[in-house]
Write a structure and sequence with these properties.
Elements: E1 7-9, E2 14-16, E3 21-23, E4 28-29, E5 69-71, E6 83-87, H1 91-98, E7 106-111, H2 137-154, H3 160-176, H4 178-181
Helix pairs in contact: 2-3
Protein name: RHS repeat-associated core domain-containing protein
Organism: Photorhabdus hindustanensis
InterPro entries: Rhs_assc_core, T6SS_VgrG/RHS
Length: about 190
């Protein structure tokens, strides 16, 4: 079966994607991604979901919509899109410390392959863990941002979309909950 963007090479019996050949029987490329690890964790794989999006050069590993930010209850979602909103700070932290509902808490779309615990979302420091209630709101937000950034960097996916999404997460938290994320006042010196 040929995927979008592939040309069939009759001489070799392989599919060609401009830079490398694809072997459908093995469901992989014969040579590694020319971008190295910047193309994703498996340099021999095709896109994650060829029916939902195309990657004619075989170079992108982010899912469509990944890195999008907003209140959790307003994030777009379609069953089977392998995305979920990752709350930063965690929904439980915001609920227990400030009474802010899960749907109003700020979240960024991250890969999560349901029903398994695979993808980038389960790798986060707060996934399926108790909230870090001893941390200040600014501290827990900063740690969650650094954690997500590390996950994307480790997978070679720290793109402009992800950078922008992380910045937007900070901005929206401060804008939506100014009393929660205000800088602490400094004590006057005598």
């Amino acid at each position: 079966m040929r995927f979008a963007g592939q040309l069939f090479d009759e001489e070799s019996g392989l599919f060609y994607n401009r830079f490398r050949y694809y072997l459908p029987e093995a469901a992989c490329y014969l040579s590694p991604d020319p971008l190295g690890l910047a193309g994703g964790v498996n340099p021999y794989s095709y896109v994650h979901n060829p029916t939902g999006w195309i990657d004619p050069f075989g170079l992108n590993a982010l899912l469509p919509g990944e890195g999008g930010v907003g209140p959790y209850g307003k994030l777009p979602g379609t069953p089977g899109d392998d995305l979920t909103g990752h709350h930063m700070p965690s929904a439980e932290y915001m609920k227990k410390k400030f009474g802010i509902s899960k749907s109003k808490s700020i979240a960024m779309q991250m890969e999560h392959k349901y029903p398994s615990n695979k993808g980038r979302h389960p790798l986060t420091r707060s996934y399926a863990r108790r909230p870090f209630l001893h941390e200040t709101p600014r501290e827990t937000l900063a740690k969650d941002i650094m954690d997500a950034r590390k996950i994307y960097k480790d997978q070679g996916l720290y793109t402009k979309e992800i950078k922008q999404g992380l910045r937007e997460t900070i901005r929206l938290n401060k804008e939506t909950f100014p009393d929660v994320f205000k800088k602490p006042s400094k004590c006057p010196r005598k």
